[in-house]
C-alpha cells in the first residue's frame, strides 16, 4: 500500500536505510520495504496474541486465589495483559493490519503465540512462578524492544515494560510467602519451578544457529539482541533470585563460569519447543478453543454496541464533544 | 499508537471505528497522544481509554478523536511543507549577539 513509484524506489530505500542507520525511528506513514512491514506485522501480531492467550493460564486462578489480596492482584495483572494485547494490536494496525483479520488468524490457528502459554497451571504456585519466570523472561525480551526501529512498537513496549515490573514482583513475593509456609507449600513451589524452568528458557526461541529470521530483524533493528544472548541474560538474572528464594533450578549443568562472568547452563529441549509451537503442546487446543468461544459468544455484544452507536449518531449529529482547546 | 489514520483497511467487516487517544497527565500539561483503540462510539471510546491508558493514575483528562477526523501533514520529514521554518534562524534567541555584561537578557 505504500509501494510508490513516484519519487524513485532507490531514493525511498536509501532514505529508509539512512533512518535505520542513524538509529531513528520509522513512523507509520513512512515508506518501508514490504519485508520490513511483513516481518513487523508478524512479530507484533504474535506478541499481541501471546498477551491475550497469556491471560488464560493465570485467569483460571482468579476465582480460586486464596485471599482477597491475591485475587485483586491477580485480577489487575491479568487485566494488564489484556491491555498489552490491545497496545500491540493498535501498533499492528498502524502497519495496515486489520484487527478482525488478526483475531481471525489467531482463532483459526494461522498465527502463533508464545509457546509458554500452552502449559497447564495445576497449582497456585504456578501463578507465582509465571510472574517470576514468564514475566521475567518477557522483561528480558521487551526492554530492548523499547528501542525497536518501528516507532509505534517501541512506544507500546515502553508502556508494557512499565507494567511488567509489578508482574514479576508480585509473583516473586507470592513465592516468598509460600516458601515461608508449610513443607507442603515449599514442595509446591519447587514442583512449579521444576515444571516451568525449561519452558521459560524456550520462550526466547530457537538457538541462534537455527533462527533463520533473526539476522534480518537485527539488521533492521527490529530486534536488538539474539535469542541466545537474551536467554543468557535471563539465566544470569534468575539464578541469584532462585538462591534467595531457596529453590533449586532443575539443571545439573548450571554453574557459575568465572571466566565468562556468566552462568553456564544446559540446553533446552528444542524438539519440545518445535512440537509446542506447531500446535502439539499440552494445552494448545484448549487455549485456542477458549479464545474462539469467547470471541463468538461476544458477537452479540459487539453487534448491539454498533447498533446502539448507529442509532445514537442518527439522533444527534454531534454527540457530546469536549471543547477541544489546546 | 496509530499516529495517523490507517490506510484504507478501516472497517471491512463492520468493526468499530479507530480512535486516537490523548491524555492530560496532570493539570498544567498538554494532552499527549498515547495510542489508539477501537470503540463503537465516543462514550465507549472514553471508557475504554480510561481502562486501557489510565489504569495507574496516568491522567486527569482524556480526549478521544476518530482517526478519520485527523488531518495530517505528509509523512515525509523532507517534505517542503516544513521548508518555511528551515531558513529563519532569526527566530531563535541565539541568533542575536548581546554583550556579556548586559544583565537579564
Ligand atoms: Fe504482558
Ligand atoms: Fe506480564
CATH homology superfamily of chain A: Ferritin, core subunit, four-helix bundle
Query: Could you tell me which chain pair has the largest interface and how many residues each side has?
Result: A-B, 42 and 36 residues
Looking at CATH, the homologous superfamily of the domain at 16-70 in chain B is Phenylacetic acid degradation B
Computed structural class of chain B:
alpha+beta
**How many angstroms does the end-to-end distance of chain B come to?**
41 Å
Large-scale geometry of chain B: elongated
Provide the β-strand percentage band of chain B.
Answer: 15-25%
**Biggest sheet layout of chain B:** 3 strands, antiparallel
Structural class of chain A: mainly alpha
Low-confidence stretches of chain B: 4-13
Total count of domains of chain A: 1
Helix content of chain B: 10-25%
Q: How many helical elements of chain B? A: 1
Approximate strand percentage of chain A? under 5%
Number of strands of chain B: 3
Q: Give the number of DSSP strands of chain A.
A: 2
The Rg value of chain B, from CA coordinates, equals: 20 Å
CATH architecture of the domain at 16-70 in chain B: Roll
Please work out how many helical segments of chain A DSSP would assign: 13
EC number (chain A): 1.14.13.149
GO molecular function, one term (chain A): phenylacetyl-CoA 1,2-epoxidase activity
Region (Disordered) (chain A): 305-326
Keywords (chain A): Oxidoreductase
Amino acid at each position: 500500500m505504500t509501494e510508490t513509484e513516484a519519487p524513485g524506489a532507490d531514493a525511498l530505500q536509501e532514505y529508509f536505510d539512512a533512518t535505520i542507520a542513524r538509529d531513528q525511528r520509522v513512523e507509520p506513514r513512512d515508506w518501508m520495504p514490504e519485508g520490513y512491514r511483513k516481518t513487523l506485522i508478524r512479530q507484533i501480531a504474535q506478541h499481541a496474541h501471546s498477551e491475550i492467550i497469556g491471560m488464560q493460564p493465570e485467569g483460571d486462578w482468579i476465582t480460586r486465589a486464596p485471599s482477597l489480596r491475591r485475587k485483586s492482584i491477580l485480577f489487575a495483572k491479568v487485566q494488564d495483559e489484556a491491555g498489552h494485547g490491545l497496545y500491540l494490536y493498535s501498533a499492528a494496525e498502524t502497519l495496515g493490519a486489520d484487527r478482525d483479520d488478526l483475531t481471525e488468524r489467531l482463532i483459526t490457528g494461522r498465527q502463533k503465540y508464545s509457546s509458554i502459554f500452552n502449559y497447564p497451571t495445576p497449582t497456585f504456585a504456578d501463578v507465582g512462578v509465571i510472574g517470576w519466570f514468564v514475566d521475567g523472561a518477557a522483561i528480558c525480551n521487551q526492554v530492548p524492544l523499547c528501542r525497536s526501529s518501528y516507532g509505534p512498537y517501541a512506544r507500546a513496549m515502553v508502556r508494557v515494560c512499565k507494567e511488567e515490573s509489578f508482574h514479576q514482583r508480585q509473583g516473586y513475593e507470592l513465592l516468598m510467602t509460600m516458601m515461608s509456609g508449610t513443607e507442603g507449600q515449599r514442595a509446591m513451589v519447587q514442583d512449579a519451578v521444576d515444571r516451568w524452568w525449561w519452558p521459560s528458557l524456550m520462550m526466547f526461541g530457537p538457538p541462534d544457529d537455527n533462527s533463520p529470521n533473526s539476522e534480518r530483524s537485527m539488521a533492521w533493528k527490529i530486534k536488538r539482541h539474539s535469542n541466545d544472548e537474551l536467554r543468557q541474560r535471563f539465566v544470569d538474572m534468575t539464578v541469584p533470585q532462585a538462591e534467595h528464594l531457596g529453590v533449586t533450578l532443575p539443571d545439573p549443568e548450571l554453574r557459575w563460569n568465572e571466566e565468562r562472568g556468566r552462568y553456564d547452563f544446559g540446553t533446552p529441549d528444542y524438539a519440545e519447543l518445535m512440537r509446542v509451537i506447531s500446535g502439539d503442546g499440552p494445552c494448545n487446543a484448549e487455549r485456542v478453543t477458549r479464545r474462539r468461544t469467547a470471541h463468538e459468544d461476544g458477537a452479540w455484544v459487539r453487534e448491539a454496541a454498533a447498533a446502539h452507536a448507529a442509532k445514537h449518531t442518527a439522533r444527534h449529529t454531534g454527540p457530546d464533544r469536549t471543547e477541544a482547546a489546546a | 499508537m496509530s499516529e495517523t489514520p490507517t490506510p484504507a483497511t478501516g472497517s471491512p467487516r463492520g468493526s468499530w471505528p479507530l480512535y486516537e487517544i490523548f491524555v492530560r497527565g496532570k493539570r498544567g500539561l498538554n494532552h499527549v497522544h498515547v495510542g489508539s483503540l477501537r470503540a463503537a462510539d465516543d462514550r465507549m471510546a472514553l471508557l475504554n481509554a480510561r481502562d486501557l491508558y489510565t489504569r495507574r493514575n496516568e491522567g486527569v483528562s482524556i480526549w478521544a478523536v476518530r482517526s478519520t477526523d485527523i488531518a495530517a501533514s505528509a509523512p515525509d520529514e523532507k517534505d517542503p511543507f516544513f521548508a518555511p521554518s528551515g531558513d529563519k534562524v532569526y527566530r531563535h534567541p541565539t541568533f542575536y549577539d548581546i554583550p556579556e555584561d548586559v544583565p537579564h537578557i
